[in-house]
Amino acid sequence: MVTVGTSLADPVQWRVEDGGNGHWYEIRDNGGAALTWASAHSMAESLTYSGYDGHLASITSAAENKFVLDNLLDDDLHRAILIGAARVSGGTAWQWTDGGDWGYTNWNPGEPQLPKSTDACLAIFSNGALNGTGFLGGWHDVDLFAAYSDYGYLIEYGPPATGPVQWREEDGGNGHWYEIHSSIGVGLSWEIANASAESLGGHLASITSADENQFILANLLDDDPHTALFIGAVRANTASPWQWTDGEEWGFTYWDPGEPKNNTEDTRIVIFSNYALKIPSGADKLGGWNDLGVSGLYYFRGYIVEYTDREGPIASDVVISPNPVEAGTSAALVAMIDDTTTGESDIFSAEYSLDGGTTWAPMAPLDSSYDSPIEAVSASIDASDTPGVYELLVRGTDSAGNVGAEQPSFLVVYDPDGGFVTGGGWIDSEPGAYRPDATLEGKANFGFVSKYKKGASVPTGNTEFQFKAGGLNFHSTSYDWLVVNQNGSNAQFKGVGTINGLPNFKFMLWAGDGDPDTFRIKIWWEDDAEVEHVIYDNNMEQPIGAGSIVVHTK
Fold this sequence. Notes:
Blueprint: E1 6-7, E2 12-13, E3 24-29, H1 37-45, E4 48-49, E5 52-56, H2 62-73, E6 80-87, E7 95-96, E8 120-125, E9 139-143, E10 151-157, E11 165-166, E12 177-183, H3 190-199, E13 203-204, H4 210-221, E14 228-234, E15 243-244, E16 266-272, E17 289-293, E18 301-307, E19 314-321, E20 325-326, E21 330-338, E22 347-353, E23 361-365, E24 374-382, E25 388-398, E26 407-414, E27 420-429, E28 442-451, E29 460-467, E30 472-484, E31 490-499, E32 502-512, E33 518-526, E34 532-537, E35 542-543, E36 546-552
Parallel strand pairs: 6-10, 14-18, 20-26
Antiparallel strand pairs: 1-3, 2-3, 3-10, 4-5, 5-10, 6-7, 6-8, 8-9, 11-12, 12-18, 13-18, 14-15, 14-16, 16-17, 19-21, 21-24, 22-23, 22-25, 23-24, 25-26, 27-28, 27-36, 28-29, 29-30, 30-31, 31-32, 32-33, 33-34, 33-35
C-alpha cells in the first residue's frame, strides 16, 4: 500500500474563467520522513480529487507558475517542493512525466548544476528556503535517487493529456486501442509491466505488421518522455523463438541496428522512444527494438498497453412487470446486456439503480452464468412504500472491465386508495414529434403518477419523460389539474416542469387504459403574447411499446 503523506490544505483550482486549465493543485507533506522523487511520484499517482487522477505537477507556462506561487508556495515552510520533471543520465533534455510540452522554465540563478551523468529531477524553492539562496518558486535540479527530509511535493489533478488511441478499422487498422503508461523514476521490470497491463483489461502490445508499427510511431512515440517502452514479446531463452503474449503470429520485426544482442538473459523486448534519440549512444531510430533481461528494474521506462475492447456493453430491452407496481410489493426486472458490437468480450456483471446511480444492486443471468458476450439478466425489485415515479437505470460490465452506458426507464409506484392514474414504459417516438429536429426518432421513456390528495384542490405526483435521441429530459414540478374517467378507460392532466433543468415549460398528458394502452404528451413554452412554442408532441394517443397504464377509479 502506498503511503500518501499529509495534505496541508484543500486543493485549489486554476479556474478556466480565470485563464487557467481547470486543474487542481495541492502540496503534500511527508511528515518529516525522508522523501525521494520516486516515492513522491508514486504517491501523487495513487491519489484522486474531484474525479481526476493525480500526478506530480507540470508547470508549463508563466501564468501557471504565477498561480502556483500565489496560491500554494507563499506560506509553505518546506525548503523545496518536488514537481514532475526528470532527466535521464546522459540526456540533454528535461521531460514532464505527464507528457506535457517542455519549454517554459524558471531556473534559480546558477541552475541547473548537476552533471549530465546524473539522473536528475526537479524541485522548486518554497517560502521556507528564502532564508538561504534563491527566489520563491525558483527551480533547481536534485539527484533523482537522493532522499530529503525537508521537502514536500506538488500534486496536479486533471484529465490525462492523452487517452487511448484507436487504430480504426476504417483506416485499415484492427480496431484496437493503445496507450502508454508511465514509470519514470520508479523501477520497472517487464513482469511488473505485464501484470499491470493485464490488470487494466489489456495486454502488452503486440506489433505484428509494418502498418501497426507505423501507427504506434506516429501516434504514441514521437513525444513520449521515456527512454524505452516494454511490449509483449517474450522467449524462454536465447535459443527459443520469440512469441507475443497474446498468441498473435510472430513475423514482423523492427530491430534497432546491432540488435538483438542475444545475451544470456535477453528474453524480453523494449522499443526506443523519442527521448532515447536525444541521449548520446542511445537509439538509432525511433521505435527500434532492443532485447533485454527479464528480471532487471529499469528507470525512465514505460509500457504500451493494447486493448481489444474499450467500450462497455449495451443495455437494452428493459422490462418491468408489473409497472406501475403497488407500494410495498415487488416487481420483476429483465434486460439484455450485449457486447457483440462493442468488443465481443464476455459479460461480467449487470446491475440496476433506483436512486439515479448512487447505489447499485446486482442482476443475475437467466442462464445462471456470465459466459458469453450477450446475456439476458433479471432481478426482483422491492417497490418503495412511498408512491412516485422512480428513474430506474440498468448497465452492464464486460470482462475487459468496461462499464456500459446506463439505460434509463421508470418504475411507477402507486397507492391504490382513491382515483388516480399511473403509467410507465416507452413509446417509439416518430419523426416530427421532437420539434427542434424533426428528423430524430427512437425510443422515449415515460413514467407518471397523478392523483388528488384528500381535501386538495390541485393534484400531486410526478411525471418524467426522456427522449434520448434529442437529449430531452422533462421533469414535472407541479400539476394544475387532473381529470379521471370513472369508467377506468382514460385520464388527462396538465402541469408545468423543467427540460434539462430549465424551468417554465408547460405540459399536457393523455393516458389511455385499454387494449392497447395509449400515451400522448405535449410539452411547450409560451412567450409574453401567450403564443405556444411546442418542443415535443407525439400528436396522438399512441399505443405504447412496453409497460402499462392504469386508470384507478374510486
